[in-house]
Design goal:
Number of domains: 3
Radius of gyration: 26 Å
CATH topology of the largest domain: Rossmann fold
Number of strands: 8
Strand order of the largest sheet: 3-2-4-1-5-6-7-8
Distance between the termini: 35 Å
Oligomer: single chain
Largest sheet: 8 strands, mixed
CATH architecture of the largest domain: 3-Layer(aba) Sandwich
Order of helices and strands: HHHHHEHEHEHEHEHEHEEHHHHHHHHHHH
Shape: flat
């Protein structure tokens, strides 16, 4: 989402770093570059004006200009300014008498129904809450059935559909059901429209009056930029919202919505939708997002994704196999599927500190997630014996595997070569003393992050 903005800011700061000592004029030139980058990212003009005023006051201060590395100090000032603009991350308010009602609102196509299921899943798995979801969308064909289907996929209960009921009546029935059966949270997925019309607002106001929700979350499409900000402002003024969920934040938009939302609406962003998967919903963390925008990565999110994708026992078992040289193609498939659960290769690279600016320099084919899909298909086309004994793969077997997975024999050979190289590297590392030796060569830094190394 922020690749374009990150690239432009990196260019600005690289120029500063090359100058050593800085004058006030140097700082002003750099801040003009920052301002232009924010404008091109579709950040709201009032937000840019306030941001630039605050950042300049700090950046031209004596403490910054006379610092040993003034360019790094200015990066920190900009980072702190971004955090201020983004606002504090606020958790979902569940401090109320159960069932806590969460009202989901938004325009049609913003991802509201999927977000409802994602949040319900998160509340069930992370907060250990018993959740009931109910669709109030009686207009869009099969909308109520859609919520029931995704609810079943994430393992939460959905309200039974009764044809002909109006949204307010469904709300009353959902409240009764949630109270009677001891649900901790009731999530109401309201109907969306193609635009902000009076009928939509009046219906939302009536539902809100009936439900008396603790949280009213607006789901807005992050790819629509300032349109999303305008929609959020209108919803807040007419209905009143307590927080915002920005969806499709893994897309190719310019990121202006996220940077403008809090300042313009006065309401906090609470979650970011980072993909189509039902796990792809992240609590909003402004400091981490600011770090990613400035190319500092987000190692915390990367670790969290890894922990969600693989258990500690599985990770240790995989490490032991790799160190013993018994790393089979079946193990390689497990490793690939774990990576796929963590997100796209491009996203993972962006989370690594200092690597966001490298994405443009890497061959796009190396970051193609379809390559992982093809590799899994190749391994799936092998027999169990072949996966554990790749040395038996002759030309005939390779042709059969290629045909079965829809790839070329050359693709099969590339995978086998990569697997062999991994085994060779691990055997060499084992002779050197394993991962502990590697940690020692790196000054023990890895050992501090990974106990036992």
């Amino acid at each position: 989402m922020f690749d374009q903005l990150s690239g432009k800011l990196k260019n600005v700061f690289d120029k500063l770093a090359s100058r050593g000592r800085l004058t006030e004029g140097d700082v002003d030139d750099a801040l003009r570059g920052v301002r232009l980058a924010l404008l091109e990212a579709d950040v709201a003009l009032p937000v840019i004006k306030k941001f630039m005023a605050e950042v300049r006051e700090q950046a031209v201060g004596e403490q910054v200009l006379k610092a040993v590395k003034p360019s790094e100090q200015i990066v920190k000032v900009v980072h702190d300014g971004l955090v201020s603009v983004l606002g504090e991350g606020e958790e979902l308010n569940l401090r109320a008498q159960p069932p806590v009602v969460v009202l989901m609102a938004g325009l049609q196509g913003s991802g509201k129904t999927t977000t409802t299921a994602k949040l319900a899943k998160r509340l069930k798995e992370k907060e250990n809450k018993k959740v009931l979801i109910a669709s109030l969308d009686i207009y869009r064909p099969a909308a109520q059935k859609q919520l029931g289907i995704v609810g079943e996929r994430v393992g939460v209960d959905s309200l039974e559909i009764i044809e002909g009921q109006k949204p307010v009546d469904i709300t009353k029935r959902a409240l009764t059901e949630a109270k009677k059966n001891g649900y901790d949270v009731l999530m109401l997925d309201t109907a969306g429209r193609g635009d902000l019309d009076e009928e939509l607002m009046n219906e939302l106001i009536a539902v809100k009056k009936t439900a008396n929700p603790t949280e009213t979350l607006l789901v807005a499409d992050g790819l629509t930029g300032q349109v999303a900000v305008d929609i959020a402002k209108a919803f807040n003024e007419k209905v009143g919202v307590t927080g915002i969920v920005l969806t499709r934040m893994d897309g190719d938009g310019r990121g202006g919505a996220a940077l403008s939302m809090r300042e313009v609406t006065g309401q906090p962003i609470k979650y970011l939708g980072m993909g189509e998967g039902l796990d792809a919903l992240s609590p909003f963390a402004p400091e981490r997002l600011a770090g990613r925008i400035l190319g500092m990565g987000d190692i915390v999110e990367m670790v969290e994704k890894a922990q969600a994708a693989i258990s500690e026992d599985d990770a240790m078992a995989m490490q032991e196999k790799m160190m013993s040289g018994k790393f089979s193609l079946a193990d390689l498939k497990k490793q690939i599927t774990t990576m796929q659960k963590m997100g796209s290769m491009s996203d993972l690279l962006g989370m690594m500190p200092g690597m966001s600016g490298m994405k443009d320099k890497i061959d796009p084919s190396k970051l193609d997630d379809k390559q992982l899909v093809r590799q899994v298909a190749i391994i799936d086309s092998m027999t169990p014996i072949e996966r554990y004994n790749p040395h038996i793969l002759n030309a005939k077997r390779k042709r059969r595997i290629a045909e079965g997975s829809g790839v070329t024999v050359n693709d099969v050979n590339k995978l086998l070569k990569s697997h062999a190289q991994m085994q060779t590297a691990m055997k060499k590392l084992k002779k050197m003393g394993g991962l502990g030796a590697l940690a020692g060569m790196m000054g023990g830094k890895m050992g501090k992050k990974f106990p036992g190394m």
